[in-house]
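Morning!

As promised:
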Amino acid sequence: MIVDELYEKVRQRSPLCVGLDLRTGYIPTEFQNFSIEDGLFETAKMIVDATIQNAACYKVQIACYEALGLEGLRAYAKILKYLRDNDEIVIADIKRGDIASTAEEYAKGHFSGDFEADMATLNPYMGVDAISPYFPYFKDKNKGAFVLVKTSNPSSDDFEEIEDKNGKPLYISVLEAIKNWGEDFLGNSGYSAIGAVVGVNHLKQIIHIREVADGRVFLLVPGFGAQGAKAEDIAQLIGQEQGGVVNVSRGIIAAHVGKEGSAKDIIKAKADAMAKELTDAIGKL
Amino acid sequence: MIVDELYEKVRQRSPLCVGLDLRTGYIPTEFQNFSIEDGLFETAKMIVDATIQNAACYKVQIACYEALGLEGLRAYAKILKYLRDNDEIVIADIKRGDIASTAEEYAKGHFSGDFEADMATLNPYMGVDAISPYFPYFKDKNKGAFVLVKTSNPSSDDFEEIEDKNGKPLYISVLEAIKNWGEDFLGNSGYSAIGAVVGVNHLKQIIHIREVADGRVFLLVPGFGAQGAKAEDIAQLIGQEQGGVVNVSRGIIAAHVGKEGSAKDIIKAKADAMAKELTDAIGKL
């Protein structure tokens, strides 16, 4: 199970997930004469090289590449291939969600072919139909998913926190469903192939989420760094057993922008510091 | 406002939206020697030619093209360009939803460049942050959106129908939000640039949705044909004023599969019949 491989990588390296949400403005001087496709690809390779000692996995935000049309998606395909060829775990941050016959197409598109990744983020709004077409890939092709539960953006309370008649917020209903769906895909680590995207907000929510996830649902935690989540709160969320990975995008991959000196050295120093900050916070639990 | 143009097209032609969710299995014999890219593009052109008298607009399901990797997306880009060059209204069925900085990238990707469409479908799970980055394009570039409200798939009740403390289902909370967001983007038709995706389920839901939408929220109704929604129910939903478009994908674009004779003639006959069925049902209201 891919979740077991990810669990091991966290133990070998750190819970850091590096988000390759590359913008053209992040391409360092040495690659600025390249085509956009090659500039993005070379920048990604440099970042991987600088962070590989700390990164349990890499999350690639497809939107940044879709924004650049076909050329952007050629770079996206190359970056995914490079990571997989080097045995790094790749999470395609696609947040797709659609009816079953359409979700089958997305599953094919992101778990095989040009855009093949190891795991993908998914949107649960439409219910289990939007998620189950990925299930056959979990066992047959060693794939996994992270489903949106509680996101880290300011308006995540618009709908995710609406409480039902019994006071249960929507995101907890989604998390419970994820836990049930995952029963058929449990790895040796105890975690299932269906994880959850959980932003850090209030301590009360962290405790509730940990209770429901219950050592079964592996977490993908966004928001560390640029979005303002603190290492102490994240440590509470993933716990001493480190049942999750913590994504940092801009905080690492744009650390060199506007600064003198080697982009790779600056990025490496930042990844080292953020991984240490997380590991220290977990050590203090 | 694009919604006014769409409103006019419905009056000139019919409320039919033809869904170009092309699979390679739908490519007719005459294009089967072509590359996948050209086969899909020629098939799309043939379908547009066969349906243009009836189709108010075309919805292109990007998942079918993403499934085929870079080649599929080259076909997707060509199909969108062909439709826009011929002044047909194109809805990119992308159902994207992400934090604001990412949604900005998606908005750029689907409202400009290789994948430029006139309107896009969006997922509201993460709240207004996932939708508002598209707003600047509504006024400046004559774009619009359809946000998922109540979908047509079997598991749409998993989360969309969860009722809050006052008995209000989630999808109605989303629809109310859409109506509010749309206040700043009202067209001459009375409808706003932010429409809603609404599947037809039970009569009680149809009445509730019409009450809330209140002549402001233009509807995109999936499920007619292959997914089983009836023309009579759809007529109730969009009403005599025809405040919506009705998508048919497989029911039209795969009508020729496994049949003898001209694919174009078969598809044209099917589009004629389905447009008439809708128009007749609306006439009987």
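Chain B has one domain: 2-283.

Hope this helps with the figure draft.
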